[in-house]
Amino acid sequence: MKQRTITVIFFNGLFLMLAGLMLFLPACSSDSEDDVTPDCNLENVTYSGTIAPIMVQYCNSCHSAAAPQAGIVTANHEGLSVVALDGRLLGSVNHDQGFSPMPKNMPKLAECPREQIAVWVNDGAPDN
Ligand code: HEC
Prior knowledge:
128 residues, mainly alpha, binds heme C
């Protein structure tokens, strides 16, 4: 009888601890690193829906079709696919050695858009 009571107390305690952990962990992980987006969509990455808006926000001010810096156009698929397929797009946004870090004079893009760009490039940079 005594043994059983102790066992019940033990398992109740264990249960409460686990329940507490489950409440605590998600809240904790979503706050801890601002670089990681928990709901980063890597499933339906398209040029028009995903990549073009990133370029509008961070790149096209310098790489427009009309006045492209360094002759690189990020503002349309034709131009962007060139640097996507020759490796310079990923090299520059990931700040890899041997590439000019982009966006120039601005902080590195967050992990989510860089991963989305990688998905699109590895897909063959389709015009979709
Ligand atoms: C403030 C202007 C500016 C912005 C914003 C900018 N670029 Fe650039 N980009 C340049 C210039 C200038 C160069 C030529 C190299 C240099 O001066 O660093 C360049 C070079 C590049 C290169 C060639 C890199 C290499 O190593 O050969 C790529 C690819 C590129 N940019 C892509 C992008 C992308 C993608 C973005 C947005 C994430 C972006 N750029 C944002 C100005 C800019």
